[in-house]
Design brief:
Largest sheet: none
Shape: elongated
Radius of gyration: 21 Å
Order of helices and strands: HHHH
Structural class: mainly alpha
Strand content: under 5%
Number of helices: 4
Oligomer: single chain
């Protein structure tokens, strides 16, 4: 039988899978990922500027950029209310 203090000292990530967990910080950048997502949405909408003869490209760009924006908004709402579901 092991004590609870032994379990607290174990890393959450296996060092064979992620060697950086052994020597330092290991995690994600949630704020950075959201910023990168919104910059991607802006870059996608910037493709609307140009010399387009047809509007088919515009429809695809708007749909793709709008889809990314909806996913980012959905992620924000989901992360804001996740603590309430516990």
């Amino acid at each position: 039988m092991s004590s609870s203090s032994e379990l607290d000292k174990r890393p959450a990530v296996d060092t064979h899978d992620e060697p950086s967990a052994d020597w330092g910080w290991h995690g994600s950048l949630p704020k950075g990922m959201k910023i990168a997502g919104w910059l991607s949405v802006l870059a996608t909408f910037s493709l609307l500027i140009g010399n387009h003869e047809g509007r088919t490209e515009d429809i695809w760009v708007i749909a793709f950029g709008g889809g990314m924006a909806l996913l980012l908004i959905w992620d924000q709402v989901r992360s804001r209310t996740s603590w309430r579901k516990r």
